[in-house]
Every structure is written in structure tokens, then in C-alpha cells.
Amino acid sequence: GGYGQKLLEASRHVDDLEIVEAYYYRPERAAEVEAKLGIPVVTDLDRVLEDPEIQALVIVTPNDQHLPQAKAGLLHGKAVFVDKPITNTVEEARELIQVEKETGGLLMVGHNFRRLRAFRACQKAISEGKIGDLVSVEGNFSRDGAYEVTPSSWRARDRCPTGPLIQLGIHVVDIELLYFGRPKQVFGYVEQVLPEGANVDNTAGLIHFEGPRLGYIGSNYLGPFRASLAVYGTEGNLYADGVQARFLSRSGREEVLYQGKNGLGAEMDASHVEQLEEFARLVREGGRPETDSYGALQALAVVNAVEISAREKRPVDVDQLLEGVDA
Fold it and tell me: Quick check: is 287 in a domain?
């Protein structure tokens, strides 16, 4: 798909990482995809898995394929990069993490939004104590697109639960957990506004973090593109949108912490390159990725908790979803 092409382009800017071929599940379109990508396309995944010359997999497929494909890669001794979400459900993620532990393989999850330089600037300000004690956080990642979710689409409800939240909003969840730490309890709502869509298209959740700190996450497929974050502290606030980050002090003084010059597309491209650079380094040298499987599991647990909360109309303890899984 389109995002796979973006990562392919990003890989061409990474030393020691060469994507030599692509797997596509529809043989009748293989020639078309090959012409578009400019690399060989195969339709037999086992051929890729059994090729001793291939050291790693970059998985950018529908969510419901993440578990079987990443699991197969690890079991065949490949390093695995899988785009977010790690899987569709916490139960699937548990299974994949167990395989990761048993094989000792490398599993990195593509939560690239935290790598946008505006959000990195916020992270730095927080770590330096610039805004004082953390109080609360609000984040939203939305775009139009509900009309694209047809019954045959992989984004339909049965293959992509919570729709925009698991596809877009999970980026915000990851950032909020990066800043605020372990989630404790979640309350959520999911709604379908456009009846012609095949999934929910409007989602929101409240997070109670460890300690007296609160977070909001929102994501929908109903309006114009929006990627925004606001972090509130006892000594000031942070506002970021993926291109710019600003600090507002308690006294009202405003400071630009980061200002991108070439728009969100350029910032996104840089984040793709950065995460693949890390992946290539880890394949060569070993180590634990910044966006590892346990962090991805926590973000997914929040998303799953929103769905459970909306269905059962109650707050959900995240620890119950994570019980028995060690970092």
C-alpha cells in the first residue's frame, strides 16, 4: 500500500539496509505492484522466509496479518520490523511477544510519530522540567476517510477494531505513554456517525495514569487532517502539531521550541528514515529498540480498553489486560 511505498523510499536513505524484494498476496496484481515499487515482487511468503540471504522483514500489511507474518519471520530467524499496531488485540500481542522471547529475535514496532521533531522537542522540555510537574495531556489524530471503509476493506470492523483509533489515534497513545508513563485505567467511547461506513468513525478515551495524572485521546475519520498534542504542567504548557512545538510559561511567556520548515510530509519522511536507521543498526549490532514490543503492547492495551469500556460502559483496568507480560 501507500505507506509501504513510503518506507521503501525511506530505506533508500539508510546505509546498510536494502529492501531486495516485496511480498504481495494478490498474484494477479504482482506485475503492477512490481512496476510501481521498482523491486521484484513475489507472491509466496514462504519463499521469502526460507531465503537465507534475507536477514530481516519490514511488515507493512493489514493489521490482521501482523501476528502470522511477524511470528513466521521470528520463527525463521529473521529480524522483524512491524508497523503499528503490533497486532489487533492484546491476546495476539501476547502470543507474538512469547515467540520473540523464545526465539531471542529482534522485534521492533513502527511507532514513528514520537520521532517527529516537534514531539521530540516536547519530550526534551518535559525531561528538563521545563513545564514542572505533569498534570494532564490531550491528543488528537484524525482525518477524513470514513467513506473509504467498505465491507470488503481491511479497515472494516471485523479486521480493524476501533477504526481510526487503532490506525491513527494509537500514535497519540504511544506519545502520551512516552511522556506520562504506565496507564492505569481507561474509559472510552466509540461511535459510528456515517451509516454508510463499515466501522466506527468517531472515538475518544480518557486515561488515568499512575499518580494523579490524566490524559485524553481522540481520533475520527470525519473531518480535516489534524495531529495535535497539548501537555499541561504546573509551570507551563506545551503545544505541538507535528511541525511546530511551543512552550507557554505560567507567566504567559511563549517560546517556539521547534519549527519545521518544509511541512508535515518532510517531518514524516525524516521519522521514517530515523526508525529504519535504528532497525538496521539493531540488526547489525543487537540491542533493544526504542519502540519495543512491550511499549507497543501497552499502547494497544489502551486502544483495546477503549473498545471494552465503550461496549461494557465501565472503566477498564489496563493492568488486567497486561497481567503476566513482563517488560
Answer: no
Q: How far is CA 267 from CA 12, 288, 303, in A?
A: 17, 25, 25
Reported as a single tens digit per residue, the pLDDT across 146-196 is 778 889 898 899 899 999 999 999 999 999 999 999 999 999 999 999 988
CATH number of 153's domain:
3.30.360.10
Cα distances (angstroms) measured from residue 33 to each of 30, 136, 148, 267: 5, 45, 21, 26
What pTM value is reported for the model? 0.96
C-alpha cell, 244: 511546530
Q: Is the dihedral of CA 171, 173, 174, 179 positive or negative?
A: positive
Same domain, yes or no: 174 and 193:
yes
The domain boundary residue, chosen from 79, 110, 141 = 110
Boundary residue ending a domain (66, 90, 110): 110
Q: What is the CATH number of the domain that holds 80?
A: 3.40.50.720
Residues 6+ apart with CB under 8 A from 266: 260
Q: Cell digits for 67?
A: 501476528
Nearest one of 35, 89, 52 to 302, comparing CA atoms:
89
pLDDT tens string 19-72: 999 998 888 988 998 998 899 999 999 999 999 999 999 999 999 999 999 999
